[in-house]
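Step 1: inspect the first sequence and its tokens.
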Amino acid sequence: MAAALLWTAHSPAAAQSVERGAALYAAHCSSCHSADQHGDGPAHRGVLGRRAGALKDFDYSPALSASKILWTRDTLKAWLRDPEALIPGQAMDYQLDKARDREDVVAYLATLKRLPSPEAAAR
């Protein structure tokens, strides 16, 4: 996994941020989330650029479903800093207190690119 993470980054500092973000994600996020499978929280593959509450096969809170948030690096960092401040009434009760931790987790999330659909892959 580390080799794949290093390959996706453009500089040694970015690679270190992604690798650190993957470790933080495993330690703090993976009890509810994963890249490809829903848990208590939605799967994160392709989260960057996706509208909040948009996955059809996940039961989001009404507040998140009604939000108009687009997940960018900045909105993800704001979410990880204080989910309730960003979207009042949402269901996530965890936050990352350190700015560097938020930066690194978002750097890791940015590597989780959306996979092509089976139809597109078959072409």
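Step 2: inspect the second sequence and its tokens, then contrast the two.
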Amino acid sequence: MPVHPLCRAALAAIVAACGCVHAASVGRGRQLLAQYQCGSCHSIPGVASAGGRVASSLKGFGARSYIAGRLANRPDTLARWIEQPQALVPDTLMPAMGVSPADARAMAAYLLELK
């Protein structure tokens, strides 16, 4: 069944916009990782002054299978981990930093790009 050219153009615009939203979210996530000073504990590629050695390096984080060694490394789980780590792993040393759900999603988007 042929697709109307206007429908094809609209679909292309939607797909392009999704890429821009994702790119903006990734950039915002990088800024937020610096703002919340995550680099005080973690070494995070691409984030200024993020050379911490107290916690694990986040280099290649997007290629990891697990968060904190036990949670599946998926965008929704990572955002929840950033927002409320003790709710997912009660004995974790990672502190809750008061990150909003929207900010946690952006931070997760950046970390998942680190391959």
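Step 3: confirm your contrast with the notes below.
The CA atoms of residues 1 and 8 lie 13 Å apart. The first helix runs from residue 5 to 35.
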